[in-house]
Amino acid sequence: MFFRPGRLKYVRKLMKKEGCVFCYRDDVVKKDQIEENLCVYKTKYSQIVINKFPYNSGHLLILPLRHCGDFLSLQAQEYADLMQTLKIAVQAVTDIYNPQGYNLGLNNGSASGAGIPDHLHFHLVPRWNGDLNFFPLIAETKLVVENIEDTLDVFKKYFKNYKVKESR
Asked: Would you say the pTM of this structure is higher than 0.85?
């Protein structure tokens, strides 16, 4: 049996944070406290963040910087930048983890199952054949083989000198 007490607090909403969990105070960002907000890549309009409670190793969140909970409310430049950042994230996961596939999804609104409906965010979850995706159903447990610190470290190294590549 695996225990993740921190996950239980999250699920039960016992971990209260003022405001949006994706919107960070300017002083925190200026101090470059990347370990606190888990941001590994940022553009003018969007960012890539490590998921604190991953479904698989390398699970990323890709989101607009502006606090926005409605996909149709994205401005043209925000949308274009978000889609480019999403592509960059997929390339990073592919280069680092070499998955056999991935799940990519956005839940728009609480009725769709969005856990944080007030701030849009895509989930990018790397997948491998036999990656134990049945395990949560059978054992009510999720096994992730990499800790958050290692995931953060590998993505920080990847994006340290990253330059946007031309579209394929």
From this structure: no
